[in-house]
Design brief:
Elements (H helix, E strand, L loop, with lengths): L13 H23 L6 E5 L5 H9 L4 E6 L2 H10 L5 E5 L12 E7 L8 H11 E12 L6 H13 L8 H4 L5 H10 L3 E14 L2 H5 L8 H8 L2 H14 L8 E13 L2
Parallel strand pairs: 1-2, 1-4, 2-3, 4-5
Antiparallel strand pairs: 5-7, 6-7
Helix pairs in contact: 1-2, 5-10
Length: 268
């Protein structure tokens, strides 16, 4: 999902991304799309489509005429095309800040977990607006890294306690845009009307500690990239610090929640 992800960590390995946050993004996507209330039979643009999670939910619940997904990562585009085989879907490589689409050619442009990773998120929102017809919808969601994305918050708090240098990599510190007012300002600045920001909170339940920890060993994304950069002793110390920090229920499950901020507007 996170397109043009150049800030930290290699964005390859669709299956590893799915295990890390893709599975939780799907839960958010369903509620996100329900709130948009786009009529059936419309043409959708998915900017930063990643592994195809959001595009798949559009196909499953919004009865689109067509969905075009665009992502900078060739690996993610290939993963999406392999796993989302509905003939109404098409996936292309491209830059969110210079979309390879015609003006006013879609009814809705959406983006999941992307804007904070872009060098110029305002340019991406302007491009989304350009691709949407007057009266159409432009909308996005991002994780609340600072407070509401508990699986990552626990990770970076533990990592920062052990290694102060890790705090500079913490998405909650790096991405000031992932808060309601900056998101609203971003959409207002693109000239969209009826801009609104809301929250979506979903459960993130792990069967046991290994279910929580294993995705951090995949290397895809900032936190997994940091984990795989550590030597064996430092990685073991981080693992045990997290084990002590997380709320483990009787039976071993770990029940957390993830909050995403949703921002939407309409093309005038």
């Amino acid at each position: 999902m996170e397109q043009a992800r150049t800030t930290t960590g290699p964005w390859v390995g669709g299956a590893r991304y799915e295990a890390y946050v893709g599975r939780w993004s799907r839960l958010v996507a369903r509620r996100f799309l329900a709130g948009l209330a786009v009529p059936h039979g419309r043409h959708w643009l998915d900017v930063g489509c990643g592994t195809g999670a959001l595009a798949g939910e559009v196909l499953a619940g919004s009865a689109p005429a067509r969905v075009v997904g665009i992502d900078r990562s060739a690996d993610f585009v290939a993963h999406a095309a392999t796993h989302v085989t509905d003939p109404r879907a098409e996936f292309r490589q491209g830059d969110a800040q210079d979309l390879p689409v015609a003006d006013a050619s879609f009814d809705a442009a959406v983006s999941g977990l992307v804007l904070n990773f872009l060098p110029a998120p305002g340019a991406a929102v302007a491009e989304m607006r350009r691709g949407v017809r007057p009266g159409g919808v432009v909308a996005a969601y991002v994780w609340d890294y600072a407070d509401g994305m508990q699986l990552m918050r626990a990770f970076w708090d533990a990592a920062g306690d052990l290694d102060p240098a890790a705090r500079a990599l913490d998405e909650g510190r790096r991405f000031g845009i992932t808060r309601p007012e900056p998101l609203r300002a971003l959409f207002d600045g693109a000239g969209l009307s009826d801009v609104a920001v809301s929250e979506v909170v979903v459960p993130t339940v792990f069967a046991d500690f290994d279910d929580y920890w294993s995705p951090f060993l995949g290397g895809t994304g900032p936190a997994p990239a940091y984990t795989t950069s550590l030597d064996e002793d430092a990685r073991a110390a981080l693992r045990e610090a997290l084990r002590a920090r997380l709320p483990v229920a009787e039976g071993g499950s770990i029940r957390l929640t993830a909050r995403a901020w949703v921002v939407r507007g309409r093309c005038p």
